[in-house]
Amino acid sequence: MAFNDMIIDAFRAGEGEVREPIDFGRSLGLLHIPKRDGTIALIPLMAIEQGGSWHVVASAAGSPQHPAWSYSLRRASEIDLEVAGDIGAPIRVVRVAVTELTGAERDRMWEAFTQVGEGFRGYEAKAQGRVFPIFRLTPLEQPDAA
Fold first, then answer.
1. Which of 36, 49, 141, 37 is nearest to 95 (CA)?
2. Three-state DSSP class for 74?
3. CATH code at 29?
4. Do the beta carbons of residue 73 and residue 85 sit within 8 Å?
5. Fewest C-beta atoms under 10 Å: which of 9, 87, 91, 137?
6. Is residue 142 part of a domain?
7. What dihedral do alpha carbons 65, 118, 94, 97 form, nearest 10°?
């Protein structure tokens, strides 16, 4: 089984919580990214929730090349995002608008990633100067108030 498939299976089996093979806790997002051929790529990524939106980084574990899915995400104005619900609640699917961050806003969010994921600084060192794209995923509809 491919690594991403193991992460996706763990995410869905654990109602949004992933402890193995990497401990993401409840911070994983499962992006449904439309590809040019009309199929959907399922991409599991650490997602930082901030200001009512989720943020994901196209680090590709420090590869000098952008991950292929990042080009598809740039073309998409909206995608579906699976995220953990409240503890004990099922996974939620949220329709989100996609915005690529730039400049100081991107730099601030990059610092947030390096604070929560120790591996990101190592990725930066391996990337041969590549700047990792960071995307904000903003819900298109606010959940109903309880």
1. 141
2. helix
3. 2.30.110.10
4. no
5. 87
6. no
7. -50
> Whole-model pTM?
0.89
Asked if residue 47 lies in contact with residue 55, where contact means CB atoms within 8 angstroms, the answer is yes
For the chain, what is the domain count? 1
Cα distance between the two ends of the chain = 40
pLDDT tens-digit map of 86-101: 888 889 999 999 999 9
Q: How far apart are CA 53 and CA 62, in angstroms?
A: 24
Strand runs labelled E in the chain: 28-34, 40-46, 48-50, 53-57, 78-83, 92-100, 134-139
In the 8-state DSSP scheme, what is residue 18? B
